[in-house]
Amino acid sequence: MQCLVQENDSLADVFYQVKDIDEQIFGVILEIFIKEKVQGCIGYLSDNGNQKIQEQYILEQGENLIEDDNKQQFYDFQNNIKLITNVLKKIKDHGFNTLDYSNEEYEESIKNLIKRIKQDRKIIEFLKFLVHLTSIDKTFLQCGSNSLHILVQMKVDLRNNNFENIQIQNTSLVEANFVRCNLSGSQFNNVNISGINLNGAILINCKWKNLKIHELNKVNGHTNYVYSVCFSPNGNILASSSRDNSIRLWDVKTGQSKAKLDCHSNGVNSVCFSSDGNTLACGSGDKFIHLWNVKTKKKIVKFVGHLDTVNSVCFSPNGKRLASGSSDNSIRLWDVKTRQQKAILDGHTSYVLSVCFSPDGTTLASGSSDNSIRLWDVQTGQQKATFGSHKNWVIYDKSILLWDVKTGQQKAKLDGHSNGVNSVCFSPHGNSLASGSKDTSIRLWNVKTGQQKAKLDGHTSDVYSVSFSPDGNTLASGGSDKSIRLWDVKTGQYKPKQNGHTSVISSVCFSPDGNTQASGSYDKSICLWDVRTGQQKARFDGHTRTVYSICFSPDGTTLASGSDDHSIRLWDIKIGQQTAILDGHTSTVYSVCYSIDGNILASASKDKSILLWDVKTGQQNLKLYGHTSTVYSVCFSPDGTTLASGSYDNSIRLWDVKTGQQKAKLDGHSSCINSVCFSPDGNTLASGSDDKSIRLWDVKTGQQKAKLDGHTSDVYSVSFSPDGNTLASGGSDKSIRLWDVKTGQYKPKQNGHTSVISSVCFSPDGNTQASGSYDKSICLWDVRTGQQKARFDGHTRTVYSICFSPDGTTLASGSDDHSIRLWDIKIGQQTAILDGHTSTVYSVCYSIDGNILASASKDKSILLWDVKTGQQNLKLYGHTSTVYSVCFSPDGTTLASGSYDNSICLWDVKTGQQNLKLYGHTSTVNSVCFSPDGNTLASGSNDKSIRLWDVKKGQQKAKLDGNTSYVYSVSFSSDGNKLASGSYDKSICIWDVKTGQQKAKLDGHSNCINSVCFSPDGNTLASGSSDYSIRLWDVKEIYSSDKNYKDNLPLEFANSPFQLYINPIVATLIISQYISFEAQSTIIFKGEFINHQGKDLCYLLKNRGACFLESSLNISQNSINI
User: Fold this and answer.
1) Model confidence over 306-341: pLDDT tens digits?
2) How far is the C-alpha of 857 from the C-alpha of 900, rounded, in Å?
3) pTM of the shown model
4) Which of 34, 70, 210, 760 is the most exposed place for a label (fewest CB within 10 A)?
5) Which candidate, 268, 304, 265, places its Cα nearest to that of 284?
């Protein structure tokens, strides 16, 4: 790795050589190269190209060239060309032009390179020059590809760029933003394009091959939970059933829907193919079973007999029998040929949830909510055996049991899932088992060893069904997130970003090399994380109760953990296996810590004692007593002579490791100490407490050096990074925080929101966007790049509303925790908490002068606050139920409010008197907004309508209908001509205020729109959704003015009305923790788009909204013929 770092240091030095070059020269050189059809750029620059480039440069400079300075400028020009030539020579022979720098092994060195060059605009332009050079000189393909990767990693704004004919290979462009770029003639080979944004881009005659894209492995179509998935015997078709009452057949290769089978009047719980693949069986909540002809898509027969929901169906291996399990507690066997019921198997005392035939067809297994599994003789119908070790319903007790069918003995118990297991499936060869759980994960198990092989994360809710393809290479899964996902069993892909633990994080710890961070949780698991990327590397399951403490051995090979199960466990990091269990404590083990030489392990317990263990032998050496209550944390000093301990008795104690004697007692915390940790130099001790603070202590003097505040609840763990510059802390607020030890400042991770986006708002200058979320946080984003600028944590429940002050220096937020908080944008700190409401605060709004803040609440009141003093000025009563929205008029004299009582009130801000009450909506008014001139008020309601009101007259001017569900948010553009609305129907509508006509409908979000907001210039619209994402939309009329779309189209489309088939408004930026492939209004003509498995991506592109001009041309010609 050191070699790589040095190589990239030299690469940065090479790039620095161009930092003083006039960037206009790069464009001139490319223009000449294209005009002269140059193939060897270095030779051309070295031999005969200077004169032509110089002439073109002079021509483009024109009057900017002052005659007196001509000679000097010509001299500088010649030197610049020589410099560029030399730089290209160095890069050509560098690893940057031969190796794939997007590989994981180069990640650290690329980050270091980016740190050095990210602020230099001319180096960025040079990287763009290298990207364009791939269209001219094939010897620079890899260096140009690496350059594009770096530009993407740097979040350089690449939108609206011309990238015609570029050739990109062997790299990753994950989350690249190519909105409205011209990529015509481009060639991509072995490129990861997952999550890229191609909205509005032009892709004509492109050749993209061997593409990697995770999105292809997710198919959407069902409108409700997916309960069951099943592969056909040949593996070409996937069947799925859903709570939406339908069955769908999918082409596994293309991901395209082949058929939708409707017949059930309730959710379809189970589907199963016959052994020959010609028949499909399905069972439903309507109590019926249907058989379908797969080829003709026609229904064959309907089996009637069950008295309640049919939960599971399964064909016998020969296809002659069908078994079904039902909530009527029975199993039924059906003769497929005669279509008659052959037998009823009774025995279960509760719902039969699953049935499965043995491979030879002689035995049937059934699982039930009576907590038992039963084996049945298919010929006689008699029960052969009962297995009853599950502690809950077979699908709910979180464990998987393997049984010996002959003896009825339990062979293994597979623990790992943190919630009920809904589905299990053996691979065709029988060596692996897949399980899908209510904990949203899929796990792969080694049947022989009982060990977990992999954990597949991607579903955002319960996984109801898993099924292997016949060749065992692909696993299909369906869940309550309405999606079906296909997984590569070998690689574990599809893999979106990790979400983390599912409960309180109790402990965090860095590995000795600083590259890995471990975390222990109430969810009983231990996770390993990549510090640089934040990605989960591994997960250890084994403890049967909360994991309270974790610690790496000094050599980084072993991790120790202490748990509420009274045990200490040692884990091998490399193989991911448990190697030892140390028993000795009589109660919860709250802390474990290795000595610097790794020979001693200390442990602290609720039994008030500290134990010192010999790691090699596993024997107990010493027992330290002194604390008067639970000992929550222990930590060795770097020299191994001193042990620190923190206790429920509010004290910290220092111990002599050799003698076991107490050396000192540190007092200061006002509540119990949960964690203590020495700095690498041993001079500082950090402590975390239930008083929500972290304290830094001088070890020699015993004095407190600093107090770090930021956590909103108990601090459970603290840990220094190896260099001592960073302190990590974890607490019951479910967050991990990184602190700068020198400054004491909090360094939040910038991962985005992890839940519903409830509110979005632009800063007055339009450069920053704020968002509030159900995850209790507020984030600030750079509007141009989409990068997170800051994160504010403090609210203890959902943040429902945010609003910038008119001068942009302060942000106000309202929350379900009943409070309003004010945040200083510059320093990123909370400056005030305004308490007054007795329930949820749904809306906050500043007056135009910034002196008054209005807030609306579930307590039916509106409060007006003096921003400077933080005092409550007025309390407005008038609504008879929850007030959801407030908005000041532009002149600041009037306040509008909308309520659950279906009414809108207009208030006099000075007196607090109600001026008017507007009636018209027939359901909840969710949002109110004044027009810029203050004459019109817009309101959005659960009655699906938007209404425009004349403020002076108090009368309704217009009613805008078009949304198919609740309207949650409305916002006027700055000129007052447009109105945007966001709805529960997942769409955004843009309205012409004068005519009341809908101008555009914006689709892209996959869940309801909670908030919409125009930028100050009116050109951009922001939307926040329950799909956890924020989208920025370019709402300018682009096609009339943007020649890029017309000049780059083939001649045959000069008069084609292709514009009728695409939406001119696209999302130019998507901010989300989950990557999403975008292709809305992408223009495609005569291209190839093939992934690394040979699958055609055209269906995916069409599914994401791309416009194929071949189709448009045919439509146009057909219209003319008619």
Assistant:
1) 999 999 999 999 999 999 999 999 999 999 999 999
2) 11
3) 0.60
4) 70
5) 268
